[in-house]
Each structure stands twice: as structure tokens, then as C-alpha cells.
Amino acid sequence: MFTPATYNITSFEEDIPKAQKISQKEKVDLENLLKNEFHEYSKNNICLDIIDLNEIKKINDILALKIIASVDWSDNEKNWIQKGIALHKNKKKCLFCGNKISENRFLELNKLFSDRVDETNNLLVALIDDVSKRIEFIEKNKFELDQELFTPAFEEEVIEYNIKINKFINEYLAYLKDISRELKRKKENVFKVLNAVSQPNNVIQTYKKLKSESQKIILEFNKEIKEIKKSKDEARKKLLLNEVASAIETEDYRNLARDVNVEREIYFKQNKKLQDIKKQIDEVNLEIQKLDEMNQSESKAVKEINDSLKNLGNQSFTLEKANKGYMVKDLDGNIKKNSKKKKIIIFDDPMNSNDDTAQYLIITKLQSLLKNKSDYEYEQIFILTHNTHFYVNLRYRWWREKNKKATFHLIKAARKTEIKKIESENEDIKNDYDSLWHEVHWLYNNNQPQFMLNPFRRIIETYCEFQNIDPKDFYEEDAEAQKLFNANSHFIDDFYIDTNGKTKEQIMEKVARLFEENNGTFHFEKHWNNQNR
Predict the structure, then answer these.
(1) pLDDT, tens digit, 9 for 90 and up, residues 128-159
(2) Following DSSP, what letter does each residue of 142-170 receive, concatenated?
(3) Three-state DSSP class for 514?
(4) What are phi and psi of 453, to 5 degrees?
(5) Contact by Cβ (8 Å): 236, 34
(6) Beta 416-421 vs 344-348: how paired, if at all?
(7) DSSP bridge pairs for 409
């Protein structure tokens, strides 16, 4: 009665936390509530089409109509002639004497009456038919409320309404029958003037009031049924949770719950093992994928190396796959043995023309090469680069292990290159921007003002970009400086000719003033003073 058709073990488990016992009395009350089989009242009340005053006036007009004949006969004589004309319509002989009736005879008889006789008869027929249908409709239908479909609370109100509607229907039906009888009398003697029929007082208003009363009863009843339906839903839920509460108190349930918990724990453990195995499989597959990609990359590199080595003639050799890496063979297929000479490894700008992924792999491999010298059996290693990013990342923790390591900065000016050894971390290059300040510092110390303009132009461009300053605004107070830095940075001439005409001090004075005018004094002094420590 109260368990849904779709209720299952999952539903039962979800209801356990909500389970609650109820008293026996409450249980009986709820079960009785569920036995209530009343539903919303959906019967359509039959609507009456009440004859209005205009229709009554039309009926009374025809009842009071007086038709005048051309000959002064009595009403009985008029009716007798009128019936004779009707009986002999489309007849060639008289039904009484058998003599032939000419068309002229019919025309003469019709002239005895006005044309309104036919019109009146036709209208009477229509009115009689309309009233007869109204009477038939009322007699065939039931206008009272069905008392059996209402709850006892509405019994008195429904009975009272039914008495009133039945009384009204009976009075209205009698009124229609009076109208029908008078119309038929007029039809029998169309020349007779009859008394008018009167409409009962407020018949239309009375019917509207009764109809509104029935609608109100139905509306209130349906509202109560909806509340009962909600109460029944709540009753089903309470009874269901009461049954759940009773079930979980049984010994059978406790034993079953214990077994389920044991099996659930076993399931979770096994599932965890399964997930761990799947994770390991995924890791292995990922490692296999990486190895495959590496192998493909290595194979491609080996092929390119071997193709390039073919151009070396008699000194040519090839690389071939071995168990642990690759081995070197000469043209005769002999494996080249390791030389006992000390090895020196040189990398010349290894980052050139490589994408980000390749650069990362190269940096990682070179770091391993630097840290694990004994594994690679080399005496010395030289790494040359123009790439500041590569330089900074390769030298991770460089200054913590300074033994047997050295860094040199090659600075080119004119046709000479100075080799400067970087002695400490403070002197070291941090990024591309710092390297420009390093370069200016070296050029200043070596009295090379003509080469200071280009790095300063790049310093100012970088500063403007990071500070979101328009370069035109930066040079606003010194148009000469803008022309000086931009024009001479791209000038091609003899390296020994001073093209800008400024000393190193004058250039530094201009740069300091430009930074001061753009609120960058602290920035300038920090970088310039740091380079002069």
C-alpha cells in the first residue's frame, strides 16, 4: 500500500538514516487515511441556456398577433378555410365533392387572407421546435451534484445545493411547458389573439447564482482533496520509514549488515589493488611511449649523423645500435676501440635552432655531463654559447662547487675580443638584461664610447617595454639622445672612427638624466653601481 513499485535494496539503504518508529495509534490513523479513495471532482456541470427577455418578447409578439382576412368571417370559418387550403395543396380534385380544382380557385382562396399567415405559421413552427428541444435537454440531463463523490464534510452543503437546483429546474421546466402549450394553441388557431406569457422573476440571475454556488463547492472540495493527497504521500513515507526501522532491529538484518560490511571491505581492498595495478600499467605504458619517442628521435639523429659522416672519405665511420647505446664502426665494419688519450669535449652553441623541448633536454643532459665527470671519462669540457637563458639554467648551483670550474665572458669591441673571467656570483650574468649592463660596464672601463650606444638603446627599449612607457615619452626632454642612440646603433663604418662624438662620461651623463626624468634613478643606480662593484 505504501511501498513504491520501484523500491529496491538501494532505496532501503538510503532510507536507513531516516528510519523512525511510530506509535500503533499513529500507524492505524495513517493506514485509514490511505484507505480514503476520494478524488478531485471532475464532472462537468450541465449548463442551461436560459430564455432571455428578447426571446420572451418575440414569443409574446406572435401570441398577440392579429391576422385580418379580406372577408369578415368568424375565427372558426377562417381556420376551416385555412385547413382546407392546406389539405388540398398540390391536389387536382376536391376531397369532399370530387370536382376538379383549378389553379385560379386556389389563388382566389389565398387572396382571402393576408400574406402574414404563412410567415406566422413558419415562425410558430420554429419557436415550438426550439422550446421542445430545451424541454427535452432538461429532461435528459442531471443538474445536481453527485453526492457520492464528495466527502462527508461536504454532505450537508451538497444536499442543500441539490434541493435548490432541483427546485429551480422544476419551475423552469414548467415555465417552458407553458410557453410550448401557448405556441401550439396559436398554431392551431393562427387568427386567435392569446395572452402573453410572463417570465419568472430574476430567473437568469437565480440560475447564475446557483451555478456560482456549485463552482465554489467543487473548488473547495478539490482543494481539500489536494491536501489529503499530500497527507497521504506523507503517510506513505512515515509508514515506510517505520517498516525500515522495524526491519533494521531484527537479528537477521544485523547479521546481513555485518556480512555486507565484511564483503564491502574486501571489495574496497581488492578495488584499491586493482586501481594501483592500473596506475602502474599506465606508468609503464607512459614510460614505453617515452622510450619509443626517444628511440625514434635517437634513430633519426643517428641516421643524420651517419649520412653526414659519409662525406669524410677514408676517415669516415658509422654509428650502430648496441645493447647499451651505440657503438662506432669504421668502413670495414670493425668496432673502434676507445682511445687511451685524454678526451676534451667542446659544445659550440648547442642551443642554436632548437625548440623549447629540445633545449630543455640538452640542458638536462649537459648538467649531468658536468656533474658526473667520471661516468663520461673526459678530461675537460668547453661549452660556448650566445644564449643567456641557456647559460643561466645550465649553471644551476654553479657557485656552490667552484673547484675545477671556470667561466669566461668574451666581450667583442671593434675588431678585438677581451676574455674576462667571472670570479664571483655577483659578477655573473643573471639574464639578457643584466648582460647588457655587463657589456656597457666593460665598454666604459675600456674607453669604447662608440660601442656603448647600441647596448644602451636596447637597455632603454627593454626598460620602456617593462614599465609600459612610450619611447617617445622617454626621450621627450632630450631629442638629441634619441637620435644619438638610434642612429649610431645601426651605423656601419670603420671600427676605429668615433661616429658619435661623445665621451663615455657624456654618454653616462645623458643616460643618468634620461632615467631621472622618467623616475628611474633608483633603477639606473642599482644596475650601474652593481656592475662597478
Answers:
(1) 999 999 999 988 988 888 888 888 888 899 99
(2) --S--GGGS-GGGHHHHHHHHHHHHHHHH
(3) helix
(4) -65, -45
(5) yes
(6) unpaired
(7) 420
Q: For residues 461 and 471, is the Cβ–Cβ distance under 8 A?
A: yes
Task: Name, of 209-218, 285-294, 329-338, 342-351, the range with top average pLDDT.
Answer: 209-218
Note the pLDDT of residue 354.
62
CB 484 within 8 A of CB 453: yes
- pLDDT for 200-238, tens place per residue? 778 888 888 998 998 899 899 889 888 878 877 887 887
Predicted TM-score (pTM) of this structure: 0.38
Classify burial at 313, counting beta carbons within 10 Å of its beta carbon; exposed 0-12, middle 13-18, buried 19 or more: exposed
Which amino acid is located at 307 in the chain? D
What distances in angstroms separate CA 439 from CA 409, 434, 454, 483, 496, one per listed residue? 10, 9, 10, 21, 18
- How many Cβ atoms sit within 10 Å of the Cβ of residue 15? 19
In 3D space, the residue among 441, 391, 439 whose CA is nearest the CA of residue 412 turns out to be 439
Helices and strands per DSSP (H, E), number in the chain? 18, 6
Question: Residue 149 and residue 128: Cα distance in Å, rounded?
Answer: 38
Closest to 105 in 3D by CA, of 72, 74, 81, 136: 81
In whole angstroms, give the CA distance from residue 42 to residue 263: 54
- How many Å apart are CA 438 and CA 531, to the nearest integer? 6
Under the banding of pLDDT at 50, 70 and 90, the label for residue 492 is very low
Residue 80: C-alpha distances to residues 20, 47, 77, 84 (Å): 93, 43, 5, 6
How far from 100 is each of 64, 85, 332, 452, CA to CA, in Å? 38, 14, 150, 148
